[in-house]
Amino acid sequence: MNLRYSLIIIILLFGFASCKTASNTKNSKTSLFKDEVFACYYHNKFNGRKTASGAVFSNSKLTAAHKTLSFGTKVKVTNIENDKSVVVEINDRGPFTKGLEIDLSKKAFDAISHDKKAGKLQVKLEIVNHSKK
């Protein structure tokens, strides 16, 4: 009798493990951080200046500023309107304008923008990895 219950438990455990793997395959590397928030981009005047992390800012790199996420954290930013995504690395603090959640480099902003003249986008933020910096 105990052997039968042990076998049933083992079969159930394998069944649950395989279901979890199959259902999370697509999003196994990201976790939702914020949904329906606004992103903007850095002005070119910041090129060459040091960021809060000490890195030199360049609008031609895939980087971003966030008020609380650790430096080095990779964030997948998805434009809600067109579902385009880009992965950026947090290397600065900001934005400091009310209603904005993340400041993207111009390269990152352009990669997901539906309108090259837009000043801000409504986005979803997903954490790709957490940095320990």
TrEMBL record:
Question: Is Endoplasmic reticulum found in the keyword set?
Answer: no
The record's subcellular locations are: Cell membrane
Membrane topology per the entry is: Lipid-anchor
Q: Which UniProt keywords apply?
A: Cell membrane, Cell wall biogenesis/degradation, Lipoprotein, Lyase, Membrane, Palmitate, Signal
Extract the Gene3D superfamilies matched here: RlpA-like domain
Keyword Lipoprotein set for record: yes
**UniProt xrefs under CDD domains:** DPBB_RlpA-like
Q: Which family does it belong to?
A: Belongs to the RlpA family.
Q: State the protein's name.
A: Probable endolytic peptidoglycan transglycosylase RlpA
Gene of this entry:
rlpA
